[in-house]
Amino acid sequence: MLQKQKLLSLYDEKVKGLVKKLLLLDGDLESEVSFEDFLWANSIFWTRALNIPLPHSYVFPQIQEDQNNCGSVNKSYEVFTDQSGDLINEQEGKGDEGEAQRVDSQVNGITSTSLQSETLWVEGLVPGIDFCNHDLKAAATWEVDGTGSSVTGVPYSMYLLSVGKCSPIQDGEEISISYGNKGNEELLYLYGFVIDDNPDDYLMVHYPLEAIQSIPNSDTKAVLLEAQRAELRCLLPKSLLDHGFFPPHPPNECDNTCKTGPICDFSWSGQRRMPSYSNKLVFPESFLAALRTIAMKQDEHLKVSSLLEELVGPGGERQPSDTEVRAAVWEASGDSGALQLLLDLLHTKLMDLEENSGTEDRDSELLQKTSTERLGQHACYENNSSEETNGSTSTTQKHKWMSIVYRRGQKELTRLFLREAEHALQLALSEGN
Q1: Exposed end of the chain (fewer CB within 10 Å): N or C?
Q2: What is the rounded end-to-end Cα distance, in angstroms, of the chain?
Q3: pLDDT, tens digit, 9 for 90 and up, residues 355-403
Q4: Helices vs. strands in the chain: H and E counts, helices first
Q5: Interior angle at CA 7, CA 205 and CA 210, nearest 5
Q6: Alpha carbon distance 1, 49 (integer Å)
Q7: Which segments does the entry list as coiled coil (predicted)?
């Protein structure tokens, strides 16, 4: 609904009048373009667009001509400079969410040679490649032959490259590519499909900004939050659970890396020991730092002020770093208050999800009712699928199936991260943290 409202505003303010002028210039006095036409075109483009690397002179031919005449150019644009030269690879770059690096740059007085060597990333449709569906085990990736000397013989031509090392793609086999490591929320919003049991799924947890105004010492806590560069929201990828207290898969014996947060590296009094569970916490430190600050009691808040005054000195010789502020907050309050607040946020999220659509078991029951034989044989369904649908009933079932898969995944992740937070809180309390 939010996306449709945004597109409606765009259509009314810019697109409608522009299309009318273009039709008049083309001599078409009868055709009329509706908002539904714009929705169709918008969907067709953005569910199939690739980030394509092109020479600067191709994207801005007039600017290149002016530059050759005047010797300088003053233009802002999104630019990615190709440092490697020949082959430009875009394995996971479909749509405006591709992995291509974007840099806003103000160009002044650049020579003709340097401009010609610039590579700009531009979203566009590539016939043939734009038919490729997404797959976790993609059969191919697409690449750009930067100079035309490597594969195709044509500069900046694009081609598909098989990723299979053992056997070539067989006749009749679908050629799929990867759109990137995207969760179901992103896939559903951008492309209109989901993946059941998506390994790249994630959960978003946030503390409402407006709620800070109602907590004790809200003004000074807001200053502390800014000093720590703390985040009031975080994305929790499903993969984090592999390193938590309850990993879904047996731990890799080769992966014995210990995760220690900055909170354990600094202490004034030495009275608070490094937690035994620090290398198992799956929650981002920047988010926990925010929750520690918000959950601080009055005496803990005063202790933080005292500790920081020791660092600053009577004359305010220097400002404490963000790491030092985090350490002061951690030494004064520990982890238990933050973890309890995190539990409350996760409980609230789960209650909201279940209030709107029931439990995970209820979702599973609905999936069985809505699954057809075709839905049961495929893991994901895309708007640009080449398969024909059997009328509006099949389309409705497909949309219903995707919605249920998405929300069931959100409930599952909330429950799993809730278990991680509960166990961490128990350990924190037992260790006096």
Answers
A1: N
A2: 44
A3: 988 999 999 988 888 765 444 445 555 544 544 445 566 777 888 899 9
A4: 15, 9
A5: 30
A6: 23
A7: none
Q: In this predicted model, what pLDDT tens digit does every residue of 59-86 receive, in sequence order?
A: 888 755 565 565 544 433 333 333 333 4
One DSSP character per residue, 149-207 reads SSSSSSTTEEEEEE--SSSPPPTT----B---S--HHHHHHHTS--BTT-TT-EEEEE-
Secondary structure of 398-409 in the HEC alphabet? Answer: HHHHHHHHHHHH
Average pLDDT over residues 141-165: 79
Element (H, E) at 78: strand 74-79
Bridge partner list, 206: 233
DSSP state letter for 105: E
Rg (CA), the chain: 27
Nearest to 94 by CA among 49, 127, 134, 52: 49
- Please give the single-letter amino acid code of residue 203: L
DSSP 224-238: HHHHHT--SEEEEEG
Residue bearing tokens 């793609």: 169
Query: Which pTM was predicted?
Result: 0.74
The predicted structure's pLDDT at residue 372: 53
The ranges assigned to domains in the chain are 35-55+118-180, 181-251+263-379+393-432
